[in-house]
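Data deposition worksheet. Section B asks for the primary sequence of the deposited chain exactly as it was used as input, without tags or linkers unless they were present during the calculation. Section C holds the resulting structure in token form. Section D is free text for depositor observations; keep each observation to a single sentence. Incomplete worksheets are returned to the depositor.
Section A, Depositor: J.P.
Section B:
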Amino acid sequence: MIFAMLIWGASWPSGKIVGEYSNPNIIMVWRFIFAALTIAIFMPFLKINLQRPKSSFIYIIIAAFCLIAYNYNYLKGTQIGLASLGGVIVPTLSPIITYLIVAKIFNKNIHKKDFIGICLGILGGLILIRIWEINFVDLISSGNIYFILAAFAWSIVTICTQKSNEDLHFLNFSLWLYMLAFLLSFIFAPWNQLIQVLDHDLTFWIHFLIISVGAIGFGTTIFFLATMRIGSEKSSSFMYLVPTSAIGLSIILLDESLASSTILGGALTISAVYLINQRK
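Section C:
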């Protein structure tokens, strides 16, 4: 489980390295097909049969568009901005955004501890993007706007995944999701450039396999298995390793510096997620 979280963290600096070779539209097409193939290989070993979606098909469609949006913003953000910052902003803000969306849609009462957590999360997010020294142009040029949009997109994917639980096994949902995302992204990708990926060097392929086979195939499957065995509360606690590993590996692989605002903002948002996930 710890190794799976380290791979999720590594996907941020690896995403930046991969982004130096090609544009996001091309990379995510290949990422989706590799992810789908990896999940398809895992399913027989886990004795999970392929199921056709029924009532959850609409959630797969919505999630597929949001997954494309997430991957574009994830790759574009790391291409422009700091991978370490993205590795803190997205994993910590996404659960908070998810909570707010669910609370709004289902008229869920926000308890005191949750309200405190939300306030901490918002404050932490503002510190992470250094709101006091940027305008809208800087928000785009720094890549932070892409990380924020990625967090929103991933929140919707998370909600769609939860809504489909009664109809489809998690890995079945993921397989259909990545196959549909592949088809949709393939339609709009520059076809004449897709095959050029095969000419990239070993460095590209190592980091590409980390963000596709490693982060999606292995990481997601291990997280799901751990959730089944030790429960969602304990498995979710391992998520706090993702920002830490993203920062550490970005410093090692990319020689990125660690700003005090990243430490403070990250600590506040992690505390916010912790508070919201705690039992009443």
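Section D:
The longest helix spans residues 202-230.
The chain is about 80% helix and 0% strand.
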